[in-house]
């Protein structure tokens, strides 16, 4: 399945850079039918790019919740956010891909709870370990072609799958 992986977050704000860190690791694996990007935030122009893929995988930091979570992203139902860059939601991008380009890729979002978001480009040890595990899970699921609904379990305490 042709897949786009996007890790996003601010690499200069500690654990907020976990998304790009996971993307970098996945990109180095050169997985078949997988393209990988890293960015600081979700971008409106991605709607056109998403329309060229069957599946999109997002990786980002979270400020609370489970240590690691995975969820399916569904199209937005309207009225969410004002379209500003800091409020753009993955569901809104999926809706744009559907409405403007007639494509509806399967979108999954992985979040890793950060511990420190101060100025600096290092991940904390706990987040680094979670990033390693998430990288393995995503790579295994992409290589097996089985998707992500059962990617939970394993060594990470506090994992949730929605």
- Portion of residues within helices: 25-40%
Structural class: alpha/beta
User: How would the global form be characterised?
Assistant: globular
**Could you say what the CATH architecture is?**
3-Layer(aba) Sandwich
Largest sheet: 6 strands, mixed
Number of individual domains: 1
Low-pLDDT parts are 153-157
Given this structure, which CATH class is correct?
Alpha Beta
Sheet with the most strands: spatial strand order: 2-1-3-5-4-6
- Superfamily at the CATH H level? HybD-like
Would you report the number of β strands?
Answer: 6
Give the terminus-to-terminus CA distance.
22 Å
Q: Any idea of the CATH topology?
A: Rossmann fold
- How many helical elements? 4
**Gyration radius over CA:** 15 Å
Account of the protein in words:
- The protein is an alpha/beta fold.
- The protein has one domain: HybD-like (Rossmann fold), CATH 3.40.50.
- It contains four helices and six strands; from the N terminus they run βαβαββαβαβ.
- The protein has helices spanning 18-28, 46-50, 90-101, 125-144, and strands at residues 3-8, 34-39, 55-62, 68-73, 106-113, 159-161.
- A six-stranded mixed sheet has the order 2-1-3-5-4-6.
- α1 links the parallel β1 (3-8) and β2.
- α1 packs across α4 (125-144).
- It is globular.
- 37% of the residues are buried.
- The model is unreliable at 153-157 (pLDDT under 50).
């Amino acid at each position: 399945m042709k897949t786009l992986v996007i890790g996003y977050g601010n690499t200069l704000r500690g654990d907020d850079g976990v998304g790009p860190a996971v993307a970098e690791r996945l990109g180095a694996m050169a997985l078949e039918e997988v393209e990988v990007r890293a960015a600081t935030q979700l971008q409106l122009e991605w709607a056109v790019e998403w329309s060229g893929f069957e599946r999109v995988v997002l990786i980002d930091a979270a400020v609370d919740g489970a240590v690691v979570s995975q969820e399916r992203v569904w199209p937005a139902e309207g009225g969410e956010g004002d379209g500003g860059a800091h409020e753009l939601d993955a569901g809104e991008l999926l809706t744009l891909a559907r409405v403007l380009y007639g494509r509806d890729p399967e979108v999954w979002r992985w979040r890793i709870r950060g511990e420190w978001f101060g100025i600096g480009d290092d991940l904390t040890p706990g987040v680094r370990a979670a990033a390693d595990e998430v990288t393995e899970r995503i790579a295994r699921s992409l290589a097996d072609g089985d998707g992500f609904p059962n990617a939970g379990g394993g060594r990470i305490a506090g994992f949730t799958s929605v």
